[in-house]
Amino acid sequence: MKLPGLFRKERTTIKAADAQDHAERLLAESLRMLGQVCSKVADAIESQRLARQGYSHNTYLRRTDGGGDDGGGKKE
Questions:
Q1: Would you put residue 62 in left (φ > 0), alpha (ψ -120 to 50) or beta?
Q2: What is the pTM of this model?
């Protein structure tokens, strides 16, 4: 006795699960890519902001608040 209906349902269930797995994998990869793009845009904006304030791209930042060389700690 053959039960072709059971085997067909099993195959469609597997195909549906594979399709859902593929869609979830694609969504996860897209979100990772979007995160990378957002990070690069944020870095570019920060770089432009620092360039407008007179800092070039590969220089160290200087303290301008007059804190001195003691690392910013308070003296009592």
A1: beta
A2: 0.52
Q: pLDDT band at residue 52, thresholds of 50, 70 and 90?
A: confident
Quickly tell me which residue has 């195959």 as its tokens. 11
Q: For the purposes of burial, counting CB atoms within 10 Å of the CB of 50, is it exposed (0-12), middle (13-18) or buried (19 or more)?
A: middle
Rounded to an integer, what distance in angstroms lies between the CA atom of residue 50 and that of residue 62?
Answer: 12
SS3 5: helix
Query: Can you tell me the distance from the alpha carbon of 52 to that of 62, in angstroms, rounded to the nearest whole number?
Result: 15
d(CA 45, CA 73): 31
- Which value, to the nearest 10 degrees, does the dihedral of the CA atoms of residues 20, 23, 26, 28 take? -70
| 12-50 tens-digit pLDDT | 677 778 888 999 999 999 999 999 999 999 999 988 888
